[in-house]
Amino acid sequence: MSPLTVLIRLIRSRAAAALVLALLILVAVSLVSGLARRFEGAYDTALRAQLGRALPGTTDLLVSQLGTADPTRRPSSPEEITGSGRTWHGLLAPELSAFVGEAQARVNTLREPVIEGLPNSTRAADQFTDVTWLSGTERHITYVAGGPPAASSPPVKHAKLGLVPSIDLAVSARTAEMMEMKVGTVFFVGTHNLAYSLKISGIWRANDPASPYWARVKRLLEPEIKNIRHSQAFEMWGEGLTGAEGFALLAKSSSTLHYQWGYPVIPAKVTAEHAPSLIGAVKAFEAAVTKHSATGDAASVSSGITPLLEGFLRELGTTQTIMWLVLAALLGVALGVTALAVNLFTDRLEPGFQLMRGRGASPAQLLTLGGLSVAVVTLPPAVAGYLIGVAVPGRTTAVAVAAPVLIGVGAVLFALFGVGRLRPYGARRHDLAGSGTSAPRLVFDGLVVVLAVVGVVLIRQRGLTTDTGDPLTIAAPSLLTLAVSLIVLRLYPYPLRLVSRLAARSTAAVPFLGAAGAARSRALTALPVLILLPATAITVFGSSLSAGLSQAQEEAAWRLTGAGARMAADHPFSAAAVERVRRVAGVEQVLPAFLDTTAQLRDGTPHGIPVTFLAVDLKAYRELVEGSPLGLPAAPTAVPAGWPTPDATPVLAHPQITRLRPPNGLEVRADQGVTLPIAATAALDGFPRITDSPNPLIVGPYSALRDPKPTMLLIRGSGIDPAQLRAAVAEETTHLTALTHEGVLASMTGSPMSGVMHNALLVTVVAMAGYCLIAVLLSLALGSAERTRTASLLRTLGLSGRQARTLTLLEIGPIIGIAAITGLGLGSGLPQVIGAGIDLSGYAGGIPVDHYAFSPVLPGLLALGITALTIAGVSAVTAVSGRRSLGTVLRIGDQE
Amino acid sequence: MTYTDLAAEAVRQKPVFGEHAHILCDNLVRIFKTDGVEVVALQGLDLLIDRGELVAVVGASGSGKSTLLNILSGLDVPTAGLARVAGTDLLTMSGRDRLKYRRETVGFIWQQTARNLIPYLSSLENIRLPMRFAGKRDRKRPAELLDMLGVAHCADRRPAQMSGGEQQRVAIAVALANEPQVILADEPTGELDTETSAEVFGALRRAGSEFGVTVVIVTHDPQVSEQVDRTIGIRDGRTSSETLRRVGDSGTVIAEEYAVLDRVGRLQLPRNFTSALNLERRVRLELERDHIGVWPDRPREEDNE
Ligand SMILES: Nc1ncnc2c1ncn2[C@@H]1O[C@H](COP(=O)(O)OP(=O)(O)O)[C@@H](O)[C@H]1O
Ligand SMILES: [Mg+2]
Question: Where in chain B is the domain with CATH 3.40.50.300?
Answer without folding.
Answer: 11-259
